[in-house]
Specification:
The complex is a heterodimer.
Chain A lengths: L8 E10 L2 E11 L4 E5 L6 H8 L7 E6 L2 E2 L7 E4 L13 H10 L10 H13 L15 H14 L4 E5 L7 H18 L2 E5 L12 E6 L2 E5 L1 H4 L2 H8 L4 E5 L2 E5 L21
Parallel strand pairs in A: 3-8, 3-9, 6-7, 7-8
Antiparallel strand pairs in A: 1-2, 1-4, 4-5, 9-10, 11-12
Chain B lengths: L1 H7 L5 H7 L1 H23 L3 H21 L3 H19 L3 H25 L4 H9 L7 H30 L1 H6 L4 H23 L5 H4 L1 H9 L5 H21 L7 H25 L14
Amino acid sequence: MTGDSAPVLSIRAATLDFGDRQLWHNLNLDVAPGEFIAVLGPNGTGKSSLLRAVIGQQKLTAGTIELLGAPARTGSRDIGYIPQQRLFQDGTPLRARDLVALGIEGERWGPPMTMHATRARVKEVLGQVGATAYADMPVATLSGGEQQRVRVAQAIAAKPRLLLCDEPLSSLDLHHQRTISELINEQRRLLDTAVIFVTHDVNPVLPFVDRVLYLAGGRFRIGTPDEVLRSEVLSYMYNTPIEVIHSRGRVAVLGAPEGYGVHDHLEHHRTGGGA
Amino acid sequence: MDELLSQLFNFTDYGQLLALVKNSIIAGAMLGLVGGLIGTFVMMRDLAFAVHGISELSFAGAAAALLFGVNVVAGSLLGSLLAAILLGLLGTKARDRNSITAVLMPFGLGLGILCLSLYEGRAANKFGLLTGQIVSVDDPQLTLLIGISIVVLIGLFLIWRPLTFASVDEDVARARGLPVDRIGIVFMVLLGLATAVSIQIVGALLVLALLVTPAAAAMRVTTSPLYTPLLSVAFAVISVVGGILLALGGGLPISPYVTTISFFIYCVCRLIGWARAKKGQPGRRIERVRVSA
């Protein structure tokens, strides 16, 4: 077990350009099992694109990404993914519990028979995210926050080695932000799941974060929250005076121009089949 | 009035007639099964318009086959497979797919009409391709139709879960390593096969009544991934078999009966869905008392 210190994810000399804009250049990052990495930065700096590159949905301009020692090109059953929120289309013939079950056996070919173990696990994770009350509701009729919790349940249901979370706390109230953050943290503690957590607000997960990857202005910084979330570091990255205030376990970044260096539209995603 | 009614519904010598259309009823039931099942995925993947496009190209293929005196089912298969694969490859985005469909549709229809105009055989065959001709299903043709239907059913069962995953939750399906694009192509091939079979029975213009309406109706009254396909199949089978049985005596084409039953079921399901929505959402176990959601 202890020999398992080989990185879950290994990003080497990764560069991503959109047209003539460089989002990040020569990014190196090894993510160890059980490590919690927060990806921070303004809109349009390629945070989501980084996750999409890991699941093979975004081609890098240069560099490589390895997942568990193999090139990451097509996604993997070892990945749990909470995509940036997009609500389900009205009339989608799935209940909350069915969506979670797809996270466990959605890749299985053959007649669609749900195993008993799957059902038990679905019930368990729905309970963990506090979604038992609406387990039998059509997903499309759930509120944004409720759908988000079901998504979290789906992502952790198959006990992935790597959990990719793209703004998983959006449309959640403070109480549920804390519940979900703690749940994801518990997941990585119990199962040694590595977590990459894209967020615009680090505070709900600050107690759990091992390292921060901060993207801004075509530059990036990797380090512990104390190393990265500092006035002089962020001022350099944004190329403008920034004040970082630590107070009672919270961090506030003052004066950061939103979307600096790159425009928001760069982070717009391909809208997939269901949209 | 009486005359019209007796033309619409005529049940004299019904027993003998029934024996004559046994083949058609089997084919119809099979088609209901296929159409009902594949229809749920057509709805999930927002392919209703694409189905129409595929069916027009299938019509062109069938018309060409008629003109050149080769197997009509084979011609219709060729047309629908070409259209389905083309749409599968080029139309991964809904907007692209719709415009490609809109371009293909009149082209296929025009080509088909050209072939039919040049064809000098029975006029009933011509009209049948557009509006249905089930009564003329003979034994070898029936075997072919059933064979294709079985291929579609087996194919659907094999890819059921990955197809569901890829259809409703594409991004996560990709992240989990599913070959979403290839699944899409395989589905389009199955859809092409199902369309080609449907055309033989209800005609190119009315294919939607079997491949879309029953599933759309089912989705109005349930969201269970088990009951949706079951209900959809039940609706489709009732529509086709019911249509055949009603049409039997009058000597009129069966398609208006099929489409009317199918439409009626859809209306009833909409009403039920609407009444339920008015009463409040079902399924929530505990009424939540929360100030803000």
